[in-house]
Design goal:
Oligomer: single chain
Number of strands: 13
CATH architecture of the largest domain: 3-Layer(aba) Sandwich
Order of helices and strands: HHEHEEHEHEHEEHEHEHEHEHHEHHE
Largest sheet: 7 strands, parallel
Number of helices: 14
Radius of gyration: 22 Å
CATH superfamily of the largest domain: NAD(P)-binding Rossmann-like Domain
Strand content: 15-25%
CATH topology of the largest domain: Rossmann fold
Distance between the termini: 24 Å
Shape: globular
Helix content: 25-40%
CATH class of the largest domain: Alpha Beta
């Protein structure tokens, strides 16, 4: 859906009004269109120049990203990466200021800031726990300062997981993370601390089979296209009324499709039979299907409560468990649940939907350690306000508030969610599990 205010803010009259009235100024975000992950130079820094600093250099080289550790006054940088793992006291946090203050004015539009820390729970001193937890407040605040379409995110490393950094660093430094800001991602938190090198960074999912539910339109269709772009063989699933749209999309992408209702009693077996017959197993499952039936709780019908919850989390749990029991999720597989900012911050008139989406988070965080011994990861993507056909039904005032109440001052695009899913699905993201990643431009109220 077109954001007319954004276009207005960028014409001569709009620019004058935005500047003089202090109105929101949504920038045009750069999104990935192929080619190098980063078109520009990344400046790196470190509090200690320890092993993580060396791992950062290795990860940048693996992604073919041009980088330097020496600041030049005349340079403009597309990204800033700071290794803060060595900060072990409150006083030591000044290293953040000393690195960032001189260089922030040199960050290009739609630039990227990545801070790397150690898991606070693994800190061996009280001072280190203080310092490492402080990185969250620092990064989320900086994400609200950088402006001009830029972002800031934090990556925590469990002990021994620095070698698995490449996929995540590449994602956060690239235009693929256009609408992801103020987020905290933990590597190695479920015990998986290693990741294979990605042989082809343009086709990291080559040879993988991906199943996407709710695939015919909107977010699901974007997921299908992006996973296929990255080399996966895609299988779409949707309900009978959308069969023609689903079939057309699957044929366009050279994939397959399943027509069915995921809440049906036979849905797990139906999916398992298809996967077994056509592919022998599946590598990636994206539980995208979801609906809304919004009413305030005082007016909520039981059937609308149950349907929303079952589609979002009940059916995905049953389907995943059945595929696991049948051995149809391959070693090193990926399970991605789709939550929502509503499941984190709540929303008026959406007690059913918010319960369902919060339930997705609870399910995935319980699943992640259970499947870690098979190298399977489980993560959640939580979209914010997205520019889909659904927003046309939202009253204008609420729609505009949803767009502007984030650090990017705009809604996201379906491809923003799809890019996050593709990153989590990569073999190089093997150490990323049990995470909740908000794709919401950093919401300003309720949650980041």
């Amino acid at each position: 859906m077109t954001d007319r205010y954004q276009d207005l803010a960028h014409n001569p009259i709009g620019k004058f009004l935005v500047k003089n009235l202090g109105l929101p100024n949504p920038p045009y975000l750069e999104r990935y269109e192929g080619g190098p992950l980063v078109k520009g130079t990344v400046l790196t820094g470190s509090a200690t120049n320890g092993p993580v600093s060396k791992a950062v250099t290795t990860a940048l080289k693996a992604n073919r990203i041009e980088a330097t550790g020496v600041r030049a006054d005349s340079m403009k940088y597309k990204g800033l990466v700071f290794d803060a793992t060595g900060i072990d006291s409150a006083a030591g946090l000044v290293a953040l200021q000393e690195f960032f203050t001189p260089v922030l004015r040199q960050l290009q539009g739609c630039g990227r800031v990545v801070v790397i820390g150690s898991l606070p729970a693994e800190a061996d001193t009280e001072g280190a726990a203080i310092a490492q937890r402080a990185l969250e407040g620092f990064t989320r605040s900086l994400a609200k300062e950088v402006g001009n379409g830029s972002s800031a995110n934090l990556v925590y490393l469990a002990e021994g997981s620095e070698g698995a950094l490449a996929s995540t660093l590449g994602f956060f430094l690239s235009p693929k993370s256009a609408y992801v800001s103020g987020q905290v991602v933990r590597l190695g938190a479920t015990g998986i601390t290693e990741a294979p090198a990605v042989k082809d960074i343009e086709k990291p999912l080559a040879g993988k089979v991906a199943l996407v539910t709710g695939a015919s339109r909107g977010l699901g269709a974007a997921d299908m296209r992006t996973l296929a772009r990255d080399g996966a063989t895609v299988i779409g699933l949707d309900v009978p009324p959308l069969q023609e749209d689903l079939k057309t999309l699957a044929e366009e992408l050279g994939g397959g499709f399943i027509v069915g209702d995921i809440t049906a009693d036979d849905a797990p077996a139906l999916i398992a039979d298809y996967v077994r017959k056509h592919h022998g197993g599946v590598d990636i499952i994206v539980h995208n299907a979801g609906i809304t039936r919004d009413k305030r709780l005082r007016n909520m019908k039981a059937e609308n409560w149950q349907l929303v919850v079952d589609i979002s989390v009940g059916a995905p749990q049953r389907i995943t468990d059945h595929l696991l029991d049948e051995g149809l999720i391959n070693e090193g597989g990926r399970v991605v649940g789709i939550a929502s900012i509503a499941g984190i911050a709540g929303n008026n008139g959406q007690t059913n939907y918010a319960s369902a989406k919060a339930g997705v988070i609870g399910w995935i965080q319980a699943l992640a350690p259970r499947v870690a011994d098979r190298g399977i990861t489980a993560n959640v993507v939580a979209p914010g306000f997205m520019e889909t056909e659904m927003v046309k039904t939202i009253p204008l005032g609420i729609r505009e508030a949803g767009r502007r109440m984030n650090s990017m001052s705009q809604g996201g695009q379906p491809v923003d969610v799809a890019e996050a899913i593709a990153w989590l699905s990569s073999p190089g993201s093997a150490a990323v599990s049990g995470n909740v990643v908000g794709v919401n431009g950093q919401m300003l109220l309720g949650a980041s």
